[in-house]
Give the backbone structure.
Amino acid sequence: MRAWDEAEREAARRRDAAADEAGLPPAGSGGPGGDGALPSGAHRHGDVVHPGPHRHPHVEPPDDGRPVLGIVGAGPVGTALGVAFSRAGWHVGAVASRDAERRRRFASLVPGARALPEAQAIVDECHLVVVAVPDDAVASVARGLRLYSGQAIVHTSGALGAEVLAPSLAAGTQAGGFHPLIAFADVDRAVAALRGATVAVEAEPPLLGLLGEMASSVGAHPVVIPHGAKAAYHAAAVLAAAGTIALLDSIASLGRVAGLDEAQSLAVYLPLVENTIGNARALGLARALTGPMTRGDVGTLEAHAATLAAHAPDVAALHREVSLRAIAIAEGRGAIDAETARDLRAALGPPPGGPGGAAPARAADAAAADAASHRRPVG
């Protein structure tokens, strides 16, 4: 499945041949009078003049029939995708970026790619435009592009729908989304991470099939996100990536209280994180949960809350919310009963800085102690 077909390419070739036979003037020479005017309905690209409004692509596809790709944006995402697609056998014809150093680096990593300063120029160099810019810039880029019939355009945003690309479309064009679910912190690591990763694709046929082929070619697994669900999908992705880093940063903050620097904290706690992830993959989330929440250790949570309040108040709110979520999971799987869950929540105290102050906190501590006196053992 393709975003264009052989019949369209053959029609374009016939029109180009007709232009040569008609002897249409090159750019700058014009018709009678030499003022640059063209015959009615004709158009030009650079020094080439065509007799009518014909369908793109001007660029011939490779022998394998795949489209030539053009990438708008030479940052970490655009560069990593350019490298990955090129290595997978796709022809990356051009990159557009206003940053000269980024253009230079992209061209050095992707053989044969032309480096262009303006996005619109890329339209003449490819069949499929990949807009790999920050989310807030996608709409602006789309407004500045005009596709030819037969072309397609996709963006790499995880949060935006394909409709944001509508300003760039013309009759016979298609728009879609292609969002690799990996962290693009480093080009080489991102290219390696694509193998086995998920790519969220959004489009109508035939473009949808092409995007699936592109994802599979770099070793990724394409999945279709239902219309209207991308914001939730992307929020979950942000929690998985940025949320994990924020959690690790909080762990490192507590490690400093214990006399560990960042590198030491990562060395100590990352193996536990990796072990937990392995358990989640093998057992599911609920069964992978361990710790004081599953054992009903109220005293442990009380000690944690007191230590954080005294030595790491910036982490206390996150610790409380994560613990409340874990208590709910433990109760849901039957590891603790409702009474124990209530005692654990009370042990965490009120939200840091929230209403209530010290008296409600002491009341919660008293309630937890009272409940502990007659708690049934939990296995």
